[in-house]
Amino acid sequence: MYYLYKTMEDSLTYYTDLTSRYFAGEASSDEIQLLSSWVSENAGNRKIFEDYRKAWELVELSVLDQKVDTDADWKALEARMQAPVQVKETPVVRMPVNEAASGRTSGWWKIAASVLVILTAASLLYYYLSGPSTVILTADAGSLEQVLPDGSVITLNKGATLEYPSRFSGKTRPVKLTGEAYFNVAHDKSKPFIVKGSNVNVEVLGTMFNVNTKADDGKMSVVLTTGKIALYFTDRSADKIILNPGEKADVSQESHQILKSGNSDPNYLAWKTGQIVFENIPLGQIIRTLNTVYHTNIMLANQSLGNCRVTASFDHQSVTAVLNVIKTTLDLSVTQQGNFITLSGKPCN
C-alpha cells in the first residue's frame, strides 16, 4: 500500500478507488482506517464520500431489483392458473398487474444509478482538475460570519472584505483581508493559515485573533486571544515577530516596522460581542471606540472635552442609548447634522 502521491489527481484516484472498495466490502481494516482519516480532514473529502455513498445506495437498489427470480415467479403463477377453480359466493375482483410499468420502474432505477455514478465521477474530476475558484466575501450591511472550507470561522466587521479559495489545495491556507475581522482558525499543523494584509502576513496553525488592516493612522493592528501567531513582511519572511495571548502588534507598512506590546484595550472585540466597558476612560478614547463599534462619525466641538472621564458599561445597546448616558454623565449637548454627531459642553476640571 502506498501513502505518498505525486499529484493531487493521484491522491484523488487512490481515495475514490478506496471508497469503492469500502462500499464493496473489500477494504482491509488498515484501508478503512486510512479512509476514515481522509474523510475527517475537511468538508470537501466528506462531500466526496457522501456523493459516492448515495451513488452506491442507488446501485444497490438496482442490484436488488435484478436479483428477483422471475422464472420462479412465473412457474408459481402457472401452477395457480392450472389449479381447479373454486367458485365462491362472493366473487373477488383482482386488479391486473402492469408488468410493463414494473419493468419501466426497474429500468429507471438502473438508469438513475448509472447517471448518478457518471455525474459524481465527472463532477469530482472537474472539481479537482479545474483548480479552486476565488470567493470574495464582503460585509456590507453589518458584521458577517463565514465558515471557510477548512472549518475555520471568520467574523467580518462592517465594510471588511475577505478573499479565499473555494478549497485550500496547497501547502498553506492563504486568505486576503481588507478591513477588520476576527479569526477562529481550525488547527492543522501541516498546513499553516496565512492572513495577507497588503505586504504583511499573519501566520498561524490554529488559534483566535483579531486583525484590522485599517487601524488608526493607516496602520495594521493584530491582537491575539489564544494560541500563537507570527507576523512578518512579505519580503522579510525570516524576520518574524511572535505574539502570545494578550499581546498586540501595531504594523506600520510605510516604515516597515512591527511594534509589539501588551493589549490595553478591553474593547477591541466590542464590534463583535456588542459589549463595551469604560472604566475611568477619557472621552476622546471613548469616541474612537464608539466610531469603530458603531461605524459612526462622532466628534468633539472642543478638544478639551477629550480629557473628561467616564465609567460605564453597555451590552448590545444602540449608539443613541450610549450617547444619552455620556450626555447625562458629563452634562453635554448632542447635535446631529447628516452623518455627523457633535458633542459640546463645558470642559471638565
Structure description:
- The chain folds into 3 domains: 109 residues; 129 residues, Jelly Rolls (Sandwich); 75 residues, Phage tail protein beta-alpha-beta fold.
- 19% of the residues are buried.
- It starts with 7 loop residues before the first helix and ends in a 5-residue tail after the last strand.
- It is elongated.
- Helix content is 36%, strand content 29%.
- The strands form 4 sheets. Strands 1-4-5-7-8-11-12 form a 7-stranded mixed beta sheet, with no helix packed on it. A 7-stranded antiparallel beta sheet has the order 2-3-6-9-10-13-14, with no helix packed on it.
- Helix 1 packs parallel to helix 3 and helix 3 packs antiparallel against helix 5.
Write the layout of secondary structure elements.
Elements: H1 8-23, H2 29-41, H3 43-66, H4 70-82, H5 99-129, E1 134-138, E2 144-147, E3 153-156, E4 161-165, E5 173-178, E6 180-184, E7 193-197, E8 200-204, E9 208-212, E10 220-226, E11 229-233, E12 241-243, E13 247-252, E14 257-262, H6 270-273, E15 275-282, H7 283-294, E16 297-300, E17 309-315, H8 319-330, E18 333-337, E19 340-344
Parallel strand pairs: 5-7, 16-19
Antiparallel strand pairs: 1-4, 2-3, 3-6, 4-5, 6-9, 7-8, 8-11, 9-10, 10-13, 11-12, 13-14, 15-17, 18-19
Helix pairs in contact: 1-2, 1-3, 2-3, 3-5
